[in-house]
Amino acid sequence: MMLLRISLSLVFICIHVWGTTAQTNEDGVALKALIEGWKNLPKSWTGEDPCGSRWEGITCNNYSRIITITLASMGLTGQLTEDLTSLSELQTLDLSYNKGLTGPLPSNIGDLSKLTSLILVGCGFSGRIPDSVGSLNKLISLSLNSNSFIGQVPASIGNLKHLYWLDLSDNQLTGSIPVSDGSKPGLDLLVNTKHFHFGMNQLSGEIPPSLFSSGMKLIHVLFDNNKLTGRLPSTLGLVQTLTAVRFDRNFLSGALPSNLNNLTKVTELVLSNNRLTGPVPDLTGMDMLVSVDLSNNNFEATDVPLWFSTIQTLKTVNMERTGLVGQLPVTFFDFPQLQTAILKNNQLNGTLEIDSGYSRYLQLIDLQNNSISNVKVESGYNYTLRLADNPFCHNGLVALSSCNNNGQESGSDASYKTPVFCVVPECTSGQMSSSTCKCAYPYTGIMIVRAPSISALGNEKYYTALQTTLIGTFVNLSLPVEAVSVNNVSMNAFGYLSMHLAFFPANQDHFNRTAISMIGFVLSNQTYQPPPEFKPYVFEAEGYTHFEGKHNTSHTGAIIGAIIGISILVLLLVCAGGYAYHQKKRVVKAKQQANPFVSWDSQGTSGDVPQLKGARFFTFNEVQKCTNNFSEANHVGSGGYGKVYRGVLGDGMIVAIKRSQQGSMQGSREFKNEIELLSRIHHKNLVKLIGFCFDRGEQMLVYEFIPNGTLMDSLLGKSGIQLDWIRRMKVALGSARGLQYLHQLADPPIIHRDIKSNNILLDECLNAKVADFGLSRLFGDTDKGYVTTQVKGTMGYLDPEYFMTNQLTEKSDIFSFGVVLLEILTARKPIQLGKFIVKQIKETVDTTKDLYNLGEMMDPMLLSSSTMLVGFEKFVDLTLKCVEEFGADRPSTGEVVKELENIMKLAGMNPDAESTTTSQTYDGSSRQSFGHPYSDDSLVQYNEGIPFKKSTSN
Ligand SMILES: *[C@@H]1O[C@H](CO)[C@@H](O)[C@H](O)[C@H]1NC(C)=O
Fold first, then answer.
1. Which of 99, 495, 657, 927 is most open to solvent, judged by the fewest CB atoms within 10 Å of its CB?
2. Each residue of 316-348: pLDDT tens digit?
3. Strands (E), 346-480
4. Whole-model pTM?
5. 447 forms bridges with which residues in the sheet?
6. What is the Cβ-side half-sphere exposure of residue 808, based on CA atoms within 13 angstroms?
7. pLDDT over 50 at 415, yes or no
8. Cα 36 from Cα 31, distance rounded (Å)
9. Residue nearest atom 1 in ligand 1 by C-alpha distance
10. 391 lines ligand 1 (CB under 6 A)
């Protein structure tokens, strides 16, 4: 009691000192009423004011009004009462993955007039969806999927003219699809909506033709797994923006509209398991189709349609039980990307002939239960061929394994498991080992892909891309996820791809509540953009209960005692800290008097002020302020010299600040010399130095911030930017020009020493900018005569000659640059799984073969894209010269630049033209956008209602 009183009086003293007073908060009262009776609330939800005392999952505006509530996966139980609607400034509500949240939505939910995102994925809500959702006229995202809602789809949703994402799938909705009729609204009015996700309900009746019109912007129309009847209306063919169409697993009948092939952007078309009749549709012209499934319908008997072989992008064809008759054309398996062809349960007859032209991606041909009497197959194939129940297998002459009826279902042949390259430790109960072999409590769940275009489920390439893009997203949002594992991949009965994902925490063995709610939001809100094969997806999280890590049960009294003790300690420290800070300031001031460089400031006139051209001096306080006190959220990278922070200057300019760590700093005179040197360097392909900080014993460099990240991130698919061949050539040329400037025009010349794809940044127009030049001199190991430790840190790029002789020349940079060119070609890291890319390329290259025999090693994206690889041979020749063993055999930077310019000219490009394409034109380039996917669309503008810090605010 005594202790308590002391601590209380300390509180009052401190409050008095700081002149702040706690106020009762109007939203606090409403929120308290709302959560009355809820269980498992965050421990930080104490006191009366959710805004003042930093309640987890809550953010407020400057007027102490709640604007976001994000509480995904908190294990909450309770109901949503009408008290919710008192939170009238609320913009984002995400309560996803709380199965214990049950009961109906409040009928007056439409009063939340500011709401832009209503995200209640995977909860236990039930009852009818209130009509008043149609009054939420700012709504952009409505995700009520995977609950137990019943009744009709409210027609009032048609009033939501800003709606972008509509997901009501996986409920028990009934009735027909509402369309407008003059007196009432309907879904046909949603001309700005991109996503209609209605799969896995019990919608019935015919699909109203007026649902679709040419003015719509829909990209995904998913009505699979319902009870729809009648014909597929021909109006669907008017919606030319569509990329994924699913009406499978309904009761659709009649012939398909003949204009279906107007949908030239569609990549996934799934109409299987209906009662469709008439001819198999002619899909000629659907030139982007990747996956088509027309299986299990009642189409007229027909020869194998010819349009298959004209669609170059097709990977998966499922024509099971579609009435196919006659002989398969010999060219059928020749389309270049084909992976899976399921043609079972038809009446294909004659000879199955597969010639040497078959797709090299081929994984599975399933021809079971047809009438094939003879087989002529090119030897040496290693895909799976299924031929059971064909006359061929019964003629007694063959004992082919393809004829064994092993009852395999398509797809069940390979379930993916994330490979592990380390010694797996034994973890305590509840913990799992990550792919980096640390024990931790992961956040887990099932990712369901609703229109998957993957046919080779065991192909590692897909999952690597999934994992790297996930990690990339979390890193960009400063969320503490270290590793992602993917396991138990399978195709489920609804035609969805299902995968078990586990997200492992960085730094600790568990996630805290804030991290979980944010990660949950990234997935529930579709902030994460997967590679196209995995779109569209839904994530269904499993409960997370390890917010405090390992549970040590101890006596409650002891805990209370400890809390009181700790609070007193904290208070004392805070109060004492304030005093100490003042004292320290004095000490620093005194120290500065003795520092010869104290007069480095913007107006300084002392003779020791560096002779700077354009570079500014920053005080420690300025830098501290613009990086939000070097907060974790602003920490964007690390290197041998220390950490890199993002900061925003007073004028709004975004900068990158490199802060050298203790031990890698050098004397003030050397620092001054280097700053002078760097400040004189200006080239459009070099990252610009804005200024520096030499204050309070810190050495920092302030650079312009380059928005599109590193070349490595783009190549590895982490940034969402896709670089085609021409753009890769431009990036190579730009970086070579930057390097040429350092080698030949800077005075004295600068050897970069750390050229790598991580030091080549891409600006908003995807121009290359070389970063970190001169840093190894500035922040490196200052031991005289010793090669810098920093260069050693980047294995894979290091010139072998330099390594042996310690003699550094420009040719060392050329070697490293050659490795970057190899990365551009292969999108692989220089050392991957213990293999050195330079060695691999030298062993593989064969100039007598197609693509120099490098097809297997190249980035598949280059091979699959439609642009020609103009100048490919010249580029490889140049690359191989750059990575010659001896420096004397490598070209100079000038020669490299010239050759790259030649390649550009070959491709009909002006090598001197400024790039004007912005990254905005690339799909999924929403690296910096924290609100919603596809945010290249101006429709989606999340300004305030997001729980993440925007990159431009501090
Ligand atoms: C294959 O089927 C077609 C169509 O039913 C028929 O016209 C043809 O004669 C058959 N060919 C053989 C070799 O059985």
1. 99
2. 899 999 999 999 888 888 778 888 889 999 999
3. 347-354, 364-366, 371-377, 384-386, 432-433, 439-440, 443-449
4. 0.58
5. 499, 539
6. 18
7. yes
8. 9
9. 326
10. no
Q: Which two tokens stand for residue 863?
A: 């091979």
What does the pLDDT read at residue 824? Answer: 94
Output the CA torsion sign for 398, 399, 405, 411: negative
Q: What is the mean pLDDT of residues 560-571?
A: 39
CA of 327 to the centre of ligand 1 (A): 7
- The CB density around residue 785, as the number of other CB atoms within 10 Å, is 5
Q: Is 859 a catalytic residue?
A: no
Q: Which two tokens stand for residue 731?
A: 């990036």
Protein residue with its CA nearest to atom 12 in ligand 1: 350
Q: Which residues pair with 94 in a beta bridge?
A: 70, 119
Instruction: Name the CATH superfamily housing domain 616-704.
Output: Phosphorylase Kinase; domain 1 (3.30.200.20)
Assess contact for 826 and 858: CB atoms under 8 A: yes
CA pair distance 464, 454, nearest whole angstrom: 14
Q: What is the pLDDT of residues 174-228, one digit of tens each?
A: 999 999 998 999 999 999 999 999 999 999 999 999 999 999 999 999 999 999 9
Four-way CATH pick for 723-949: 3.40.50.150, 1.10.8.870, 1.10.510.10, 1.25.40.10 = 1.10.510.10
- Number of C-alpha atoms within 13 angstroms, CB side, residue 426? 0
Structural class in CATH, domain 432-541: alpha beta
Give the CA distances from residue 338 to residues 286, 309, 359, 365, 456, in Å, rounded to whole numbers and listed in that order: 16, 10, 6, 10, 10
Residue of 300, 325, 346 to test ligand 1 pocket, by largest number of atoms within 8 Å of CB: 325
Cis preceding-peptide flag for 178 (omega within 30 of 0): no
Return the percentage of the chain with pLDDT > 70, whole number: 78
Is residue 637 within 6 Å of ligand 1 at its C-beta?
no
Q: Is the peptide bond before 536 cis (omega within 30 degrees of 0)?
A: yes
Report how far ligand 1's centroid is from the alpha carbon of 350 (Å). 7
Average per-residue pLDDT in the chain? 79
pLDDT per position as a tens digit, 575-629:
334 334 443 443 333 333 334 344 444 333 334 445 555 678 888 888 888 888 8
Residue type, 383: Y
Q: Choosing from 167, 170, 188, 754, which is the catalytic residue?
A: 754
Mutation choice for ligand 1 from 327, 351, 374, CB with most ligand atoms inside 8 A: 327
Instruction: State the closest ligand 1 atom to the C-alpha of 350, by its place in the atom list counted from 1.
Output: 13
Q: Looking up tokens 């949950």, which residue turns up?
A: 520
With beta carbons less than 8 A apart as the criterion, state whether 326 and 304 touch: yes
Does residue 151 line the site of ligand 1, with CB under 6 A?
no
* 644 or 668, greater pLDDT: 644
Where do you find CATH 3.30.70 in the chain? Answer: 432-541
Q: Give CA separation, 586 vs 127, 282, 579, in Å.
A: 66, 82, 11
Domain with CATH 1.10.510.10 in the chain: 723-949
